[in-house]
Amino acid sequence: MELIDSVPLCPPEGACRATPGQPDHRLRPFVLGYGGFSSHNGAPIAHRVLPLSSTTLVFSFDGPFTVFSGPRAEAIVDGPTTWGRGVSVGLTPAGVSVLFGLPASVLAGQLVGWRDLLGRRAEPLAERLAAAPSWPARFALLDAALLARLGTAPPPSPVDAAWQRLQGPRIAVGALADRLGVSRRALELGFRREVGLPPATVARVSRFQAALGLLAEGVGPARAATGAGYADQAHLTRSTRAMAGLTPAQLCAIVQYEPLPGA
After folding, report:
1. End-to-end CA distance of the chain, in Å?
2. Of 40, 46, 100, whose CA–CA distance to 76 is shortest?
């Protein structure tokens, strides 16, 4: 499932365009995927940053600027959310830690500038990505830059394993803790320390993203609700209003994408 980090703040005049990319196999525990993106005409537009339990690194070609968008349970509409063309990198909590040396929890609910966070370690990747001749070339540049940051990764922690499991079918937090051989309290504390969201919230955000992915594929709200594990369409509507500030019908109007040329 392709996660959707953000959508236009207002319904655009035409469909936005996107193309996915997969990271090098050595990055798979840390990088969820790459995504080239463009507004309908390539011009910068304001975005609504949606609930997501992972971190997104957004390289905008407008400027250019780069921003980390941390895990969050509610939409963000303020701050540096205006871009037109660029590429995004989805990072697991382990990826933020291993590749950038800090827990994802320090980014929770925030949009943080690349250079503000990394200082001298922030190489000018946005400029190089914008100048690359194609989307495959850009994804290859990202592979090279992230592999250069990849040292000897520690073994997965119970939080890493639990976070990955919560991206799938519903499971009670207590049952997940038992399966991993840790107490529920220890798992919850680990999530707050390493992710910045409690495991129950990660599960709720994952369900929202599953429904959003179905809506983006053109599935109607009723089928998206049942397909993502909601009790019914009314349950989905309450959840999307609370988390994203939009109804499923409003989301349907702005999550339709077309392929990017040259992908």
Report:
1. 19
2. 46
Q: What is the pLDDT of residues 112-147, one digit of tens each?
A: 999 898 887 778 899 999 999 999 999 999 999 999
* C-alpha–C-alpha distance, residues 81 and 88, integer Å: 13
Q: How far is CA 234 from the centre of its chain?
A: 25
Phi, psi for 14 (deg, rounded to 5)? -145, 170
In this prediction the pTM is: 0.94
Place of tokens 């997104």: 56
Q: What is the mean pLDDT of residues 232-237?
A: 95
Q: Strand, helix or coil at 86?
A: strand
User: Out of 2.40.50.140, 3.40.190.10, 3.40.50.970, 1.10.10.60, which CATH number does the structure's domain 158-255 have?
Assistant: 1.10.10.60
Task: Phi first, then psi: give them for residue 45, nearest 5 degrees.
Answer: -135, 155
Q: How far is residue 255's CA from residue 231's CA, in Å, rounded to a whole number?
A: 23
Residue ranges of the chain that CATH labels 1.10.10.60: 158-255
